[in-house]
Amino acid sequence: MMGGGCMPSVPAGLRPSASLALLASSGLLLPLPARPAPAAAAPREQASCPPPPAARHVVLEKGWLGQGADQRPLARLRQERWTADGTTEGTVFERIGRTFRQFRTTGTWRPIGPCRVRLERTTPDAGPGGREVAEAVLDASGRPRYSLSGVAGTTISGIWRQQVDAACTSATLTGTVLSQQQGLSWNDGWRPNAVVQRETWRNGRVQGLALSSYAGAVETASYSGTLEVERTCLATVVQRDTEGVAYNYRAIVMADGSGYLYLQEDPRDLTVGWLEAISPAPVAGSAAAPPGGRSRPAGR
Prior knowledge:
- By secondary structure, the chain is an all-beta fold.
- It folds into two domains: 55-163, Porin (Beta Barrel); 175-279, Lipocalin (Beta Barrel), CATH 2.40.128.
- Helix content is 3%, strand content 53%.
- The protein contains one helix and 17 strands.
- It has one helix at 18-25; strands at 55-65, 72-82, 87-96, 99-113, 116-122, 131-138, 144-149, 154-163, 175-186, 190-202, 205-214, 217-229, 234-241, 246-253, 259-264, 269-270, 272-279.
- Strands 1-2-3-4-5-6-7-8 form an eight-stranded antiparallel β-barrel. The protein has an eight-stranded antiparallel beta barrel with strand order 9-10-11-12-13-14-15-17.
């Protein structure tokens, strides 16, 4: 321990040089240059997409119309053609609550930002109330992928698929399709349900199996049915359960054979869904009907 406050000696090699001490005492020691400030990050460029090409599209829309006690479920299927000059025309299948209707629309699309377009449509037979607006986002090819309705009092989203320019026949939908969707059934108010399906199609006829859930109570039903399809790919589907009860749908078949979309017409059940093809048709004579279950294809 060092006594008397004496400081330990500094080794000679660590003592400041005389010249450095002289510069410091005379104020001639220059300050170190300041470190440059970090460069500001360059603003990110917003993604850009090519203009939407002329094409045909299929849209599945679902949501709600109105507020409070007046709120009703809404579902639509839409097949729509866009032109390169910004016009649209199409056919719509629509359910609002327990009411079904089919109508045509005309309209326009225009870019409103990077990879984003605004749609304005009118229904010629609907008068002043037949105008609707929506906005859609585009993928890297300039094709619409998802949309939202801009009509006051609605909460509606849309999923888009490109429809190739080819005619449809009863043979277009061939093989096995699978789906899962959530729907609604009327019982003193709209109650949710969930449905999983497996169908096998051949020459406009189907054998199917549906698993339906009502608040966790699962029901199983087998059914058969027929498809009537126009060259435009708009279609009507009628399916019957094991007791012969009919269930009615309007549909849009994908012209490339990748599946179909459907909207139920029956007033007390509202389901809208996408059934995706997973395999080609089985060899003739090898497809067996699905196992039987409860007679009602619940939720369908």
